[in-house]
Design a protein that fits this description.
Layout lengths: L1 E5 L10 H11 L3 E4 L4 H4 L9 H12 L3 E5 L7 H6 L26 H18 L5 E5 L15 H15 L2 H8 L26 H29 L4 E6 L8 H5 L4 E6 L1 H7 L4 H6 L8 H12 L10 E6 L17 H11 L4 E4 L25 H15 L4 H6 L3 E5 L1 H9 L8 H14 L4 E5 L9 E4 L7 H9 L3 E4 L27 E8 L6 E5 L2 E14 L5 E2 L5 E6 L2 E4 L1 E3 L1 H15 L10 E5 L3 E6 L5 E2 L10 E4 L3 E2 L4 E5 L1
Parallel strand pairs: 1-2, 1-8, 2-3, 3-4, 4-5, 5-6, 6-7, 7-8, 9-10, 9-11, 11-12, 12-18
Antiparallel strand pairs: 13-15, 14-15, 15-19, 16-17, 17-18, 20-21, 21-25, 22-24, 23-25
Helix pairs in contact: 5-8, 6-8, 8-16, 13-14, 17-19
This protein binds beta-D-galactopyranose.
Length: 657
């Protein structure tokens, strides 16, 4: 694994570049990402290109031995471009135009913007496509950041109508698919269709879902427009995009079909504070981040990193938090050691690079309260020496990423469409698909299991245990994957409750699973936060919450509530929850299944995570106090190459047989 950093030569005096480059090399950084917001420097006025500064920056960085990832600057169309073509701007859901002065103000559906973006990308690709210092390109920056996937512009409306007409061909087919006989929504032709915003109450769910699908496809085709140009003019360089944490507005598996390395931006503290984590976790891990935040996203984007058919997954961390960020509701500083821990953790999950954001804190503008590896006066910040230590530990202790992969026998099935359907029809306040995903993932990890994330419909052949926290619609391909694996399948509630268009299936739910498990959901309830479904499992009280599917079946429940209603059904290698299990209940059931199928689990101390390879075990302590690696995890006859069995606060250990 290489280390990198994000650098903005256009923000610093030229006289600093050479010293910065030398220091990067000295601390152990090999790769530097530049350029992704610099359009107004590359082209200060229409057609007047100014590349000299970038030529010079690339030469200086490259001559110092650094390799470069060059970003295309399309996340920040310059002022002159916006003034010349105001129609490129996006519109928010309230119908308000997005203004100039920050970033991501463009609309994915603007043909004019696509033309302009293609032009600047082509210019860059021709100029730097075979530059020996360049190893890769990053397309744009964080598609969708600041809620920008879904634009409600005139351009989007026109493009949506075209998309619908390609998909449905006839308006009758659309009327059928959307169920427009309800509330007099019948359409006579595609030109009548609006975007699903500003309706009086809930818009038609099938309409919303198609708009979400369309918006996702617009990101895919915008990205592909760039990758087509880059591949032609710069065939030997890798293409990256930097995805985000907790972001689901487009299908990342689809975008990943066009890039070589799926990278993502890891800000564990910002996301802990900003997202819907439990208060006790926010409190306990305030300066460390949630122990499953980075691991989950590494595993998700590693899956994305196979979408182009790469034999070995290719994924990276393009931006790693080094200190306090500026954008979450509260912005604490990581405890000493966390910047190093996150780097090692990326490596354990197979990242080929972890790159810190940013080299130096900027004294000006929107992000001047965001830490870097260097302070704004250019003195070293907290993470600087941690990166140096990380660099030397990596160099001295090689690991084989494939060995962690081979040891992974648990899959978790993830679906962007289920997230969209869940947002359109949560049906209850307690339904949160992403929380379900993270809880199931975290439960498996707390049992010491390595987890692969698999897109719905992906092959499940190599696994012993497959976790499906929910899939609101189950595609034909997913059914085949479930039917052809020998793994034990564990399904959560609400599976197969919708058809592709969010109608209710006439077979009743779980539509698509009834050949695997003979039961039918006859009705469902969403349950308020104060209610628990209480049952007993292996002599202990367990809870479900938030949801209850009532079923008709000849099966006797494996776990039931006090009134005898089934909370879990099991037959052969299939188990299904009718409720959302709380994490202790889930953990007990997964552990019991793992025992049954001979999958080795471990009772890890809370806040400790491990990643196990055949001969290597990495341990990460997210606690602010010491913990010990359970002796069952490390096999006899080995050594600790990094750390020891007793891990310090925020400590890392690497054990090798
Ligand atoms: C990312 C973004 C960077 C920077 C960073 C601050 O979302 O890609 O440009 O804004 O956040 O944490």
């Amino acid at each position: 694994m290489k280390l990198g950093c994000c650098y903005y030569p256009e923000q610093w005096d030229e006289t600093m570049w050479a010293q910065d480059a030398r220091l990067m090399g000295e601390v152990g950084i090999d790769i530097v990402r530049i350029g992704e917001f610099a359009w107004s420097f590359m082209e200060p006025s229409p057609g007047d290109y100014g590349w000299e500064w970038l030529d010079k920056a690339i030469d200086i960085l490259g001559d110092a031995g650094l390799k470069i990832i060059l970003g295309t600057p399309t996340a920040t169309p310059p002022k002159w471009l916006v003034d010349l073509y105001p129609e490129i701007l996006a519109f928010d859901e309230q119908g308000r135009g997005r203004g100039f002065g920050s970033r991501r103000h463009y609309c994915f559906s603007s043909k004019v913007y696509r033309r302009e973006a293609a032009r600047i990308v082509k210019q860059m690709a021709q100029r730097y496509g075979d530059n020996p210092h360049l190893i890769g390109w990053q397309t744009d920056n964080e598609y969708g950041c600041h809620d920008t996937v879904r634009s409600y512009s005139q351009n989007a409306k026109t493009a949506f109508r075209e998309w619908l007409s390609d998909r449905y061909e006839t308006i009758d087919a659309l009327n059928q698919a959307w169920g427009t006989s309800f509330w007099s929504q019948l359409y006579q032709n595609f030109d009548e269709i609006d975007l699903p915003n500003l309706t009086v109450t809930e818009a038609n769910p099938s309409h919303q879902l198609d708009f979400f699908r369309f918006s996702s496809d617009q990101v895919v085709s915008f990205n592909r427009m760039q990758t087509d140009i880059l591949r032609q003019a710069s065939p030997d360089k890798d293409i990256y995009h930097n995805f985000m944490g907790h972001f689901t507005q487009f299908d990342h598996f689809e975008v990943s079909k066009d890039i070589d390395v799926a990278s993502w931006d890891s800000y564990p503290l910002g996301f802990l504070d900003q997202e819907n984590y439990r208060d006790e976790d926010k409190h306990r891990f305030m300066r460390q981040g949630h122990p499953d935040f980075a691991g989950f996203h590494h595993d998700l984007y590693r899956a994305c990193g196979t979408m182009r058919g790469q034999k070995n997954a290719r994924f990276a961390v393009m931006e790693q938090q080094p200190g306090p960020v500026n954008w979450a509701p509260n912005n604490p500083a990581p405890l000493p050691g966390m910047a190093r821990l996150w780097g090692h953790e990326g490596r354990a999950h197979g990242a080929e690079m972890v790159s810190y954001f940013r080299w130096r804190q900027a004294p000006f503008a929107q992000e001047n309260l965001h830490a870097g590896l260097r302070r704004h006066d250019n003195s070293p910040a907290q993470a600087f020496e941690e990166v140096r230590q990380l660099a030397s530990e990596i160099k001295e202790n090689p690991v084989c990423p494939a060995s962690f992969q081979e040891a992974t026998k648990t899959a978790l099935v993830f679906s962007y469409e289920t997230q969209w359907m869940s947002q359109i029809k949560p049906q209850g306040r307690m339904w949160d698909y992403m929380q379900l995903i993270l809880d199931w993932y975290g439960t498996a990890r707390s049992l010491g299991l390595n987890v692969d994330i698999v897109p719905e419909g992906g092959s499940l052949d190599k696994y012993d245990l497959v976790l499906v926290p929910s899939l609101l619609h189950i595609t034909g391909q997913a059914i085949k994957a479930f039917e052809s694996t020998d793994a034990h399948l564990v399904f959560g509630p609400r599976c197969g409750m919708f058809t592709h268009n969010m109608h209710l299936p006439l077979s009743l739910g779980p539509d698509g699973l009834q050949a695997l498990l003979p039961l039918k959901v006859i009705h469902s309830e969403s349950l308020p936060s104060f209610h628990r479904e209480v049952g007993y499992f292996e002599g202990e009280e367990i809870y479900g919450y938030g949801w209850l599917d009532h079923v008709e079946t000849r099966l006797k429940p494996l776990v039931s509530n006090g009134a005898g209603k089934g909370l879990v059904f099991q037959e052969e290698n299939v188990s299904l929850f009718t409720t959302i299990p709380d994490t202790l209940f889930l953990r007990k059931l997964i552990d019991a299944i793992a025992q049954k199928i001979g999958l080795e689990t471990h009772n890890l101390p809370s806040g400790l995570r491990v990643r196990r390879g055949e001969k290597t075990v990495y341990g990460f302590n997210y606690n602010d106090g010491e913990v010990s690696m359970p002796s069952s995890v490390v096999k006899e006859g080995g050594d600790y190459l990094i750390g020891e069995a007793r891990l310090k606060a925020c400590g890392v250990s690497l054990f090798k047989k």
